[in-house]
Every structure is written in structure tokens, then in C-alpha cells.
Design goal:
Layout (H helix, E strand, L loop, with lengths): L1 E5 L4 H13 L4 E5 L9 H10 L4 E4 L13 H21 L3 E7 L22 H16 L4 E6 L2 E2 L6 H11 L2 E5 L3 E2 L2 E2 H12 L2 H4 L6 E4 L6 E2 H12 L4 E5 L19 H7 L6 H20 L1
Parallel strand pairs: 1-2, 1-3, 3-4, 4-5, 5-10, 6-9, 7-12
Antiparallel strand pairs: 8-11
The protein binds NADP nicotinamide-adenine-dinucleotide phosphate.
The site of NADP nicotinamide-adenine-dinucleotide phosphate has 25 residues, from α1 and β4.
């Protein structure tokens, strides 16, 4: 297959690239950054696809600044919704399959049980609303050949993410206060990248005209941001006291759902995926991070 991956400089895009290089995957991949294909311009998207004949698009690009989106709805909507709609239209008219990544923030977090793919969506913030509009556009345009994977609390060896932030903060401070009443499931981008590659190679995905589907993917288990931060500090061995605080004590521009763990039963059964427990994946990622920082110091 000839596969386009957007968002090549992002956490998931970089994680897919690393696996493709490491595992010698038997497909041709093109990884595009924002500089090479800016999805906020309709004309860019149109002319880009005139030049290539892809079999599959994996859309990892997104406007992911959740708080900034509250003041920047137009831009967030343009990337998370309108560009996704245009990509879906191009995919449909050129028989290209699509794997698109969405978020747990399309839920309001009030279920207090793992969400299934058919549960009612009700986003609390602009980011979640624009991501949901992107999902809806895909499903209304592509009755077949699209997969939407909702994920949550993504972190990796790359870029700014919660793990990197906690590592920096615990090195600079003796005490940290972290929110303990928002519960979710961390997702190591390396695991999600692996799952996407397994899906791409599956017979199920490669069946012609397979009905479009939504799936949930995160690591196994759930925790609060406080538990997550404690585990990062625990693995790194840094001495810093981490204390739990309430959401009200850490005001943010965007409202966040309180409890968004998601059931992974559908994706694990459909593609025979083994979902790793969040603490095990965190250890693996942090081991990679410390190896990388040793290499960078040499
Ligand atoms: N991060 C999370 O906690 C989280 C949670 C749930 C779901 N998700 C979803 O998972 C997917 C991957 O997230 P991630 O953490 O890998 O995101 P990320 O690290 O923020 O990467 C997103 C990528 O999209 C690119 N991008 C932004 N605007 C663009 C534009 N106008 N044209 C082309 N590319 C553009 C960015 O380019 P630059 O590098 O140039 O900025 C960046 O490389 C996204 O769909 C996100 O919504 C993420």
C-alpha cells in the first residue's frame, strides 16, 4: 500500500515513523509535516492529492491545544473539522481508505463507567466539539473504508506532553500540586502506533467496502493526573512531594471531562490486540527517554 501519514512532527506521527523504520514495514509511507501540507488551506489539500495516488491516509494531524482552542475556535475548527471533511471527500472520491484519530474529550465524563463507542457524545470544550464535528463529517461522507480511533491522554518520547512536563517540574521543584479528580487512561503513542500498523495489515481492514467504524484505544487501567504524575516521579526516582488538588484549584480556559476511561473491547477483539497496562507502557517510554537523554549528552 502507498500510505500518507499527516502530522509527521507530532507525537503519534513520529511514533509511527519510528516503528516503520525499526520494523521494515512492507508498505510505502509518505510522512508529511505541517510545512509540507498545511491542512488549514483548502487549496493546499486539493492540489496535494492531485499529485499522489494513495491507498490509505492516516490522519494524525490535529489542532491539539485544548485551552488555546477556547479563544481560537476558527483555527481549531478548520483543522479538526473542515480539513477532515475535505480529506474524507477526497478519500471517498478516490477510493482511499482513512484512519483518523479522535479523542475521549468528545464525552462529558459523567458516565463513571468505561465509555463504549455507541455512548452519547457531549463535548464540554471547543477542542472536543471540533474533533466531534470531524468524526461526524467522516461518518456522513464515508459509509465505508474509514476507521476513527478515539484515544486519550497521549504521551510519548516526543514533544510536550504530560510525562515530559512532570519530569521537568519535578526536577525544578520540591513540591507539586496535581489534579486528582479527573480520571482517564494514559496512552503511550508507541502502543497506539503499533496498533495502527497491526490494523493496516489485518484482513479485516483490507476487506473491500468494509463499513466505517469507531473504535476506542488507550492503555489498560485508569488513573487520575495525580496518580499519573506520582508514577512518573516514582519511575524517575526524583525526590519531589506531589499532592492532590481539585479541578477548582487549577482553573483552565477549557472545561475538562471528569471521567473518560473507554472500553477497548471492540478494538481488541476486532484486530486481536493485546492492550498493555498503563504503568508498564509508562516504564517502557521512560526507559527510552532516559536512553535518549544519555545519547544527547554524549
Ligand atoms: N495529545 C493528547 O493527549 C491526545 C488525546 C486524545 C486524542 N488525541 C488525538 O491524537 C492525535 C495525535 O495527537 P498528538 O498528541 O500526536 O498531537 P501533536 O503532537 O500535537 O501533533 C499534531 C500534529 O498536527 C500538526 N498540525 C497542526 N496543525 C496543522 C495544520 N494546519 N496542518 C498540518 N498539520 C498540522 C502539528 O504540526 P506542528 O508540529 O507543526 O505543530 C503536529 O505535528 C490527534 O488527532 C489528537 O487530537 C491526542
Amino acid at each position: 500500500m502507498f500510505i500518507l501519514v499527516t502530522g509527521a512532527n507530532g507525537q503519534l506521527g513520529r511514533s509511527i515513523q519510528r516503528l516503520v523504520k525499526r520494523d521494515n514495514i512492507n508498505h510505502s509511507f509518505v510522512f508529511v509535516t505541517r510545512e509540507q501540507l498545511d491542512l488549514s488551506y483548502f487549496s493546499n489539500i486539493e492540489s496535494y492529492f492531485k499529485d499522489y495516488k494513495f491507498d490509505l491516509i492516516v490522519n494524525c494531524a490535529a489542532y491539539t491545544k485544548v485551552d488555546k482552542a477556547e479563544l481560537d475556535e476558527k483555527q481549531a475548527n478548520s483543522i479538526n473539522h473542515l480539513a477532515v471533511k475535505q480529506v474524507a471527500e477526497i478519500a471517498k472520491s478516490n477510493n482511499i481508505k482513512l484512519i483518523h484519530i479522535s479523542t475521549d474529550f468528545i464525552f462529558d465524563g459523567l458516565k463513571h463507567q468505561p465509555y463504549s463507542e455507541s455512548d452519547t457524545t457531549s463535548p464540554l470544550n471547543i477542542y472536543g466539539k471540533t474533533k466531534l464535528a470531524g468524526e461526524s463529517a467522516i461518518l456522513s461522507i464515508m459509509k465505508f473504508d474509514a476507521i476513527i480511533i478515539r484515544t486519550s491522554w497521549l504521551y510519548s518520547e516526543y514533544g510536550n506532553n504530560f510525562v515530559a512536563t512532570i519530569l521537568k517540574l519535578t526536577q525544578k521543584n520540591n513540591n507539586l500540586n496535581i489534579v486528582s479528580d479527573q480520571i482517564g487512561s494514559p496512552t503511550y503513542a508507541g502502543d497506539l502506533a503499533q496498533a495502527i500498523l497491526k490494523i493496516i495489515n489485518s484482513d479485516r481492514f483490507n476487506t473491500l467496502e468494509k463499513e466505517s467504524e469507531i473504535y476506542h484505544y488507550s492503555n489498560e487501567g485508569e488513573c487520575s493526573w495525580y496518580d499519573f504524575a506520582k508514577e512518573v516521579a516514582n519511575i524517575s526516582g526524583v525526590k519531589c512531594t506531589i499532592s492532590p488538588i481539585k479541578t477548582e484549584d487549577y482553573p483552565t480556559a477549557a472545561k475538562r471531562p471528569r471521567h473518560t476511561s473507554m472500553s477497548k473491547e471492540k478494538i481488541s477483539k476486532a484486530f486481536d490486540l493485546k492492550i498493555i497496562f498503563w504503568k508498564d507502557s509508562l516504564k517502557y517510554c521512560m526507559k527510552n527517554l532516559s536512553t535518549l537523554s544519555l545519547i544527547n549528552k554524549e
